[in-house]
Amino acid sequence: MGKQEFQDIVTFEQKGVEVIKDKKLIDVFYDEGYSPVLWALRDQPLTVKEILKKYNQYVVLNVAKMELSAKDKKEKTVATQRSEKTIYRYLKDLENLGLVAKAGQRVVIGKTATENLFCRTARIFLLEDVKVGWWECEESEVILDRVSRIIGIDNKGKPPEVECLSKLMNKVEKLESGDVFRLLDEHYEEVSKIILEGTFKENNMLLKALRTIAFLKNADKYVDELKDCIG
Amino acid sequence: MQFRDIITVEQQPVLIIGNEDTIEYKDVKTGEKKSVFTSNLLIDPLYSPILTALKKGPLTVRELEIEYKKLANEPKSDKTLYRYLKFLEKAGLVTPAGQRVTVGKTATEALYARTAKLFFSSFAANDLWECSFCNTVLGKVAEILSLREDMPKQDTECVKNLMTSVDGYIFNELSDFYSKHFEEIAEITKDSNSYEMSRITDVLGTILLLNQPKSFEKPLEECLKA
After folding, report:
1. Pick among A131, A188, A206 to test the B interface (most B CBs inside 10 A)
2. DSSP-assigned states of every residue in A85-135
3. Per-residue pLDDT of chain B in tens (226 residues, 90 and over written 9)
4. Average of pLDDT values for A75-79?
């Protein structure tokens, strides 16, 4: 579609940050069906057709990360890709949960009918306890096993225990996320305004910097775990 | 059938790909100019089987056809694979590596190889907080940090120095370590895709920082009290 063929009329006012504390809502962000919709809408309002396209792209990229055989990857991709009708149902559910809203209308020049636009209700959803526990799952075990062997190269041939690395990374994640979460939660209004000024990429870098600073502030709290692991 | 491979290129041990590195191409269907992040090619379902297959060493297109089918569970013609190889060559990930001479045959076959044993994707490889919008982002970081009651108004330059020294330290240490031990690391990560490689790099970076907590104590303290 060419540049001048449509115009988006956005009427919904999006928030900068929404802090999510409700466990049931947090689960939605890890749901295999809903999370690609929220991912697709991270940048701008989209029509259902556009969401569907991004949704299926997300599935392909996500399955590519999995430790599966080529055959299983192909089957998983087919099984997790969705139809336009299903996306519409997901959008309705997310709208009822307050995570997605009707953003406005897309007017296609020369056409009477408009298309609905959808957006996230906030640019950034900040989840309490996000990712804590990820370093204990099966997916992370493969990664930590390789990390352990790599560290072993330079550690007089003594690779650290995977379990110990898992504990260390969990603590890092917990303290780092907790610190950033508190900061953003306590100053929600001001942070929201700042976040709304930035693009998705800029906001990602902003969170990266805040996490690094939170990590450095807590660096002395990992001494025991690090000693147990690396010696 | 007896053959001999004449290898004419020397593979680099490690190739560092910046998170911002892109490659431009023309869309075959629309003729439109598009671009893709080089690091994304490492996990692209169309291209990654080639890069995985070439971890074994230089291969001909015919050999790649067999390996690709095994890895992707989908056959691709030699013509398609040749097109993919050209694109990966343009992205700097694959290179023509020499010729296979089959005994008794006049014609030789081209060999292809990865440009490096290890591909390592890093944010710091590009500009280390020097991008066009980096100052804006760091200004916002400073503004958010200053919201804490016990902290005075932050200084962008100070946050920039801190982030540059932290990310620069991780980048330099990891680059040295990967270059020094590329053989062992290539073996350990032979089955890892780009996503796993980036998580592995994240954990190693975290551990590197934890080993040197004192190095950043002062710049952090200065920054938060600016």
Report:
1. A206
2. HHHHHHHHHHHHTTSEEEEEEEEETT-S-EEEEEEESEEEEEETTTTTTGG
3. 689 999 999 999 999 888 778 898 887 778 888 888 898 888 788 898 899 899 889 999 999 999 999 888 889 999 999 999 999 999 999 999 999 999 888 999 999 999 999 888 777 666 778 877 888 899 999 888 888 766 677 788 888 989 999 999 999 999 999 989 988 998 888 877 777 888 898 899 999 888 887 888 888 888 877 5
4. 88
The CATH code belonging to domain A6-123 is 1.10.10.10
Which residue among A69, A184, A219 places its CB closest to the CB of B213? A219
**Contact status of B159 with chain A (Cβ, < 8 Å):** yes
Place of tokens 């504990």: A167
Using a 10 angstrom Cβ sphere, with 0-12 exposed, 13-18 middle and 19 or more buried, the burial of residue A146 is: buried
Q: Which residues in chain B (4-33) have CB-CB distances under 8 A to chain A?
A: none
Judged by CB atoms closer than 8 Å, whether chains meet at A73 and B73 is answered as yes
What domain range includes position B173?
Answer: 127-224
**For B224, which residue in chain A has the nearest alpha carbon?**
A213
Task: Name the one residue in this structure whose structure tokens are 């690779």.
Answer: A159
Q: Tell me: the pLDDT tens digits for A180-220?
A: 888 888 888 888 888 888 877 788 888 889 989 999 988 88
Closest chain B C-alpha to A96 CA, distance in angstroms: 31
The residue out of B101, B120, B139 marking a domain boundary is B120
- Supply the pLDDT for residue A156: 66
Average pLDDT, chain A: 86
Asked if residue B135 and residue B90 are part of one domain, the reply reads no
How far A3 CA sits from the closest chain B CA (Å)? 13
Candidates A148, A213, A218, A224: best to mutate against B (most CBs of B within 10 A) is: A213
Boundary residue ending a domain (B95, B120, B145): B120
Same domain, B110 and B176: no
> Cβ A183–B199 below 8 Å, yes or no?
no
At residue A4, the pLDDT reads 54
Residue for token pair 């994640």: A173
Please check whether residue B113 is in contact with residue B95, taking contact to mean a CB–CB distance below 8 angstroms: yes
Q: What are phi and psi of A196, to 5 degrees?
A: -65, -25
CA distance B49 to chain A (A): 10
The residue ranges of every structural domain in chain A are 6-123, 134-230
Strand pairing partners for A105?
Answer: A9, A116
What is the bridge-based pairing of β-strands B108-114 and B12-18?
Answer: unpaired
Chain A residue with minimum CA distance to B177: A154
